[in-house]
Amino acid sequence: MVIIRANASCAALGIGLSSVPYPYGCSAHCQSDSTATVIPSNTILPTPQPTTAAMASSATTHGLPPSVLNADPGTFTKGGTPLSAADYSASASVPSGAQKFPRLSLPVPMMRLEYDAVVIGSGYGGGVAASRAARAGKSVCVLELGRERWPGEYPVSAVDAFGELHVSGNAAANNAPIKDLNAGDPTALYHLVLGEGQNAFVANGLGGTSLLNANIFLETDERTMALEECWPQELRRKAALEKYYDRARSMLQPTPYPEDQPELMKLELLKKQAVKMGLADKFYRPPQTTFFRDGLNSTGVEMKASTLSGQDCTGVNDGSKSSVLMNYLPDAWNWGAEIFCECEVRHIKKDPSGKGYIVFFAWYGNKRNRAEFEDLFHNELMWVRAKELCFLAAGTLGTTEILLRSKRLGLHMSARVGQGMSGNGDILAFGYNTDDVANAVGRQTPPKDDMARPVGPTITGVIDMRDTKDVLDGFVLEEGAVPQVLGRFLQTMLEITPGKVYPTEKGGKYDRLRKFFARTETRIMGPYYPGCSVNRTQIYLIMSHDDNQSTLTLEGDKAYLKFNGVGRSSHVKQLNEFLAKATHAVGGVLVNSPFFAFLGQEEITVHPIGGANISSTGLGEDGVTNHMGEVFTGAGPEVHDGLVCVDGSIIPCALGVNPFATITALAERSLDCLAAKYGMAIDLETKNGKLDLVNGKPRVRWPLTEEMKEAQESILAAAGESGVRFAEVMDGHLYVGDEIDDFEVAENAAKGNGSTARFYLSVDTYSTKNLVTRTDHASMATGTFTCSALSKEPFMILRGEVQFFSPDTKTPDTKNLTYKFDMTGTDGRVLHFDGYKVVNSGIAFSPSRTWRATTTLYVTITNPDGSQVARGILHISKRNFLAEMKGFGPLGDVGLWKNLAGVKAFLSFFSLQTAAFYFSPFRRLQYPAAAGTATISSIPKVQPTKVVTVTAVDGVQSTVHCWRPLQSNPKLPPILFVPGAAVDHQIFALPTIETNAVEYFLGKGYTLYAVTHRVGKTEVAKRGYTIYDARLDIKAAMEYVRADSQQSKLYCIAHCAGSVALSMGLLDGAIPAGWLRGVTASQVFFNPKFATINSLKASSPVPMPVVYKKLSGGDWFDCTSPADSALVQRVTDQLLRFYPVGGTAEHPEGCDSTTCHRSELVFGRLWTHDKLNKETHDSLANFLGGISMNCLEKLMHAGNTGNVYDNEGVSLMNESNLARLKGVPIMFIHGMNNAVFDPESTERSYDVLRDAFDDDLENYQRLTIPEYGHLDCWMGKNAYKDVYPFVLNHIGDVTKTADRENPLSASTAHGRN
Ligand SMILES: Cc1cc2nc3c(=O)[nH]c(=O)nc-3n(C[C@H](O)[C@H](O)[C@H](O)COP(=O)(O)OP(=O)(O)OC[C@H]3O[C@@H](n4cnc5c(N)ncnc54)[C@H](O)[C@@H]3O)c2cc1C
């Protein structure tokens, strides 16, 4: 085994990139190719680590830990969905078309945030960089703009091929510039770049232009390499690249068209032309990277023998082409490189740490580049960090554009970026309708009877004219083939193209007739007809030396290509004369390429080179990169450490021959030099063995993080399933700071200070089936989040979680669309994004509310420790929503019908979920569970210390629940809770919320009691007792409390009817005011005033109790009615569907609980729904009873008149009664959204008391609780935060006051917050 290693004292492998001191200074690296040590590995390598079974026993491990070598890589197909084992085995047996193809690339959601090396582009340069860096033990990421396509997937038909054409640029033909053309998909395979003066044709795809080229592997001649004005001295040396050509050869395996293969007519024709021109010795079969036999290639990939189809230039489908996709890239993959497609790198900047680079890219996944997102697509960029090395290999035009943009955005470099480019002196021309058959139109599958006349690979022969006196006059002429897709149009194109050069000697009559018939045959029989004019057309490609005076510049943000006049130089004239001579020698007509003829003598090159030219002097003033491709920081010799160009962009002048052999050799050399400079050991020795790209795993795989594993699992779990994908943009305002809790307040504050925010996400649902059937199944979000108040650059979002319609566990009858992810800033800051949309019955029958609910995202951003960073609201604009819908499409490669079914299933799921709320009044009613079967709560709750029965003076018995704190404080007053009508002590001791009132006050050291009086949820209530009667139970309970606690005064918390009963008892003297240390009167006291709907009901011409009597069928109206109750009850429940559910226009409410509807009918809406949690709402029947008609009638009278009465209807409100309340401190609390009693109720009582006792004003307080309704002030999930503390404060205040007035009872512990 041999390892290339420059310096045995180099830094250990796997460490960060640090330059190894080199004895001859920087420029001495030019020597590295000759001095890089090739020594047996066993003398210098670290001890090999354990390897996977798949690894050859001799393999080096580069010190990679076993976790890297053993990690499960996972396999993914097109679009990121996994390929099942069945798919793979099918691929071997099914005919082409139904085939599945291997994928080297990973779905972008599987990307990491940083790698040792990032490679931009995947042509020859990118392939070399990825393979060699990976073999040096670096973690490598390849970002490729195009898609991954394997032989069998390249277009053949015109329709398919046209769909794969991207045309961009500016054309300036005849002084009529076409500006900013951008037609077709930028990730398409064929890219025609229009420029001024010359145009270029390149490929985008995994493998770069190697996917389309004509395979000719020819070295640049030594005289060209010795041109002083072009090349630096390191490369001018004789055979400077020899070793690297060898290395490229060993990977790409070029071979001349074998003599034992069928004779090819175009090859024979070129030979004949050479002979006729006296150039027989210049003709030969050049080496080409085509396989002419089945077998494994250099990398261990299975290759197939060429079918000689001539289809190379649209992508040959027979598996014979030794493109980078078949060698360097699988090698990189096998050594752990992670490859991502459809990622267009836009610019690079230095990492803020000063070491490494941040590579910004636009990802085309999920149609993120829709016209509607145009402003964002190229601005809100995703990024990945290159910790040590960043290789630019996006091809001449791609790399130069990235450099230009990076320079503009602040990366220092030479002023020569984009200068001195060349079209490699390319000329395309045609020898039309010659005397001989050329058979040069590609044919995917020739008919059986025509198999004897294969087209052959695209190029097989060359007339090499490079030994001219002046090296710059040298050139090569090669014959070619046009792909099948152009065959049909060729004749028309050639015939209408102007500027034909006819033979000077006119042929005879017979000759003219033959040519006429040949043309007619093409027209009638098509381009393949033996002997027709197109069949007799020779295709020429010339590579020569142009003046390297072309440029690429950025105008706006678009690259503008300007080649200066290859078509106008005298040299071109000579070349055209040569072509004419060659053509006329075989009786044909020379036809120029249509670009030359129609576009003012413009040429089209397939070999654009330069833009990041290697400097001939080693200084940035003469070039952009040094001899090994490192990018200069300016005009001097200093370079950006680790930023290296390795593709055609560094070639400083036309080569006079096809360039990829030289591009590859230079890239191999760059990597070698870098290894020398940074002490990396590139293992070139270990062979891969057979690579199974279909079922196999790479030998090296960097371990997945936990969340990557989860993501992989969820992708793999979707094997064979159809999914959906779309891109979503939401923007709005986020307030940065932790002081605002309320989303709307935060949004408004953020609007005030201009703090905008946006996310731009691609959402992938890998399995629609899982999404629809499993609540734990999330979709995956990838993209960016921008908020300039948080970071200058976008945060990167990978593997985020989007849940559609997950039940809201905190709020009843509500579903959420949630967005949860960690996001990372370019400075390494990690924040958590938590967003949710709320969909509930409030949207019923309202398109505008439905739109608002499904497009409003409540967002909180937190630090990893949970502290709030920002809060606010994001929205979807109508434009972005339309774009989202237009871009919505299937995910996965499971066939058309399954894909369509997946999309349909998703859309149905979304529509049904929304419709369930939109048409919520028609939903199935939620009846209370059968008695004893309801599970109320899983939360452990404090149990009462005892439950006792107390007897009122009239003999009616009530229960009192008692709770003692672990450590009771005798200085604190006992608290008595008094619930309202139709409920019991549970409203204060609710089992379904995190902290109920009993737990809250118990925790503060109070001894607690709760009475369930006779109009509460009791059996005796059915006897028709009134609220007035209930005061006696309160009195009895108070007597018990005073005795049990041995305290003469207690504090009373009374709610609703309980509070009214207390006020009645105090007014008529049944309850002595002297027993009370203080009171919290919740929602009402002695001035009950109904809220609007209840008022309307109370003043209805038909008394409501009469209606209720009819509905209930008696004197008792039950708020709970099971599904199997009497018909009249079930009918009532069905009718109540349509009873207005209340809420405000802003926050409408609704639900399908029969208990909720029934209680609302008699009492009014008892809560603001989103203040309850789902468990409470689901088990309402456990907490609500009913009301007798007698009680209700009296209550309605009171609520209608705003007064309290005894059972005989005599008002209790008079001066002497009121005087009894003197000295009792009372705090009124009222939910602002109370729909039972209007907030005016407590306001009036508060005013009455303050008027009556104006010397004791401080005894009265009144508090309104925003957003709360009636019972939710006690039963709300957050009441312990929003309501109870106020009551606690009041108790503390009145106790302290009492202590001051009576120091003997002073206490230190008041249990205040
Ligand atoms: C029809 C045809 C025939 C040819 N025949 C021959 C031949 O016979 N012999 C020969 O030597 N040469 C031939 N060539 C030229 C040769 O293929 C190229 O010179 C060579 O492939 C260039 O290699 P590269 O590494 O510089 O870039 P490329 O191979 O062009 O690779 C660049 C890659 O980068 C990607 N990319 C571009 N921009 C970005 C971006 N912003 N972000 C991420 N990725 C990006 C592209 O999609 C592409 O995949 C031919 C070319 C064509 C078109």
From TrEMBL:
GO terms for molecular function: flavin adenine dinucleotide binding; oxidoreductase activity, acting on CH-OH group of donors. This is FAD/NAD(P)-binding domain-containing protein. It comes from Sphaerosporella brunnea. InterPro entries: AB_hydrolase_fold (IPR029058), Cholesterol_Oxidase (IPR052542), FAD-dep_OxRdtase_2_FAD-bd (IPR003953), FAD/NAD-bd_sf (IPR036188), GMC_OxRdtase_N (IPR000172). Its cofactor is FAD. The keyword Flavoprotein applies. SUPFAM superfamilies: alpha/beta-Hydrolases, FAD/NAD(P)-binding domain. Keywords: FAD, Flavoprotein, Oxidoreductase. It holds the Pfam family GMC_oxred_N. Residues 168-411 form the Glucose-methanol-choline oxidoreductase N-terminal domain. The keyword Lipid biosynthesis does not apply. Residues 116-147 form the FAD-dependent oxidoreductase 2 FAD-binding domain.
